[in-house]
Each structure stands twice: as structure tokens, then as C-alpha cells.
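Hello again, I could really use a second opinion on something today. My current little project is about how a certain protein chain folds up. You're getting the sequence in one-letter code plus the fold written as C-alpha cells. Here's the protein in full, and shout if anything looks odd to you:
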Amino acid sequence: MLPHVQRLERRPSTYPDAMSFPAVFLDRDGTLMREVNYCSDPKQVEIFPGVPEGLLQLKEAGYKLLVISNQAGIGRGYFSEAQYRLVETELARQVQPAVFDAVYFCPDHPERATARRKPGIGMILEAQRDHNLDLGRSFFIGDKAIDIECGHNAGLRTILVRTGYGAKESHARPDWIAEDFAEAVKIILKETGDERDQSA
């Protein structure tokens, strides 16, 4: 059974804040790259069109970029952490010249899940501590209901992309729905512009 997670209330914050940074939390499979069931081979990595450009736009707008990924294949014994790392390295290569600020993954078996496994917010809280993040100004982009739930649990604004499993999700309650990652980036940049206008 997944651990109970209390949702954090989203709190308004002053923009800009020199002491903390907004972030975009990114699911991996089905969001940045095509869904491959338990991907363990870097040859299977295929990023979606527009991902490197979109990541660069977010970086230029001042967002930290954090990948937050469940990797139950490790816990189930389908592949090793070393194999996972090869896939991670290939993803990083394909998104260049964009660069992730950090990548977090949870290898837990679903039946032995800790608070790190989405929809738990353990990985988000680790990222917040490691990178001094302002969750009230941050977003989560994912293709599964579990991503949206995780984002909401942490007080983030959420975007469901219809790539990966997103096209079939019917019970997720995201703040926005986007056809793909490029459209999700446009939503965030519009919100960023609106917030700056309001703080001017």
C-alpha cells in the first residue's frame, strides 16, 4: 500500500525571490521520451520532438529542471541500477544542449514503497532541499495520474501531457492538459509572464 501523503497547501510567494528558485519537475517516460515498458536499453531512448528546445526555454525563464522518476523495474529485478544509469545518460545526451539540474529516481517495488515513490513527495522534498526551490512557483509535467497526484501533494501546479499514458488518463485532475511537452512549456511561459506582469 502506498504511504499516505498529506497535500501541501500552495502558498503565494514574492517574485522574484533571490533566496529560492522556481522549478519544473519532469516525469521521464512518456513525457520527455517515448514510453517503453521498463526501459533498460539506451537504444530504446527516443525523446519527443521539441524537448531540447523546450527545456532551454524553461531554463532561460529561470526554472531549475528536475527529473522525478519511478523506476520499479529495479525493485522488481527486471534491470539493474547500472542499466538504468545507461538509459539516464542517453537521455541526457539526446536533450543537449539542454541540461538537467538533477535527476531523482525511486527504485522501490510498488508493494514496498517508501515516501519517495510517486505519488509520495520524498523526491520533490529532496530536490527542494538540494536546490533551494520555491514549490509555490513550480510546476510538475507528467503523463500519468500518479504524476499529477504527486505534484498536487507537493503544492505544485500540474500539467498532464497526452503523450505516453496521458492520452488514456481519465481520472487525473491536472491544472492544465497539453498535447505534448512543447505545449506544456508554452503554458508555463505564459504563466511566468503573467506573474511577472502582476509583480511589476
The domain at 35-49+62-184 is CATH 3.40.50.1000 (Rossmann fold). Confidence is low (pLDDT under 50) at residues 1-17. The chain is about 35% helix and 15% strand. Residues 14 and 199 are 8 Å apart (CA to CA).
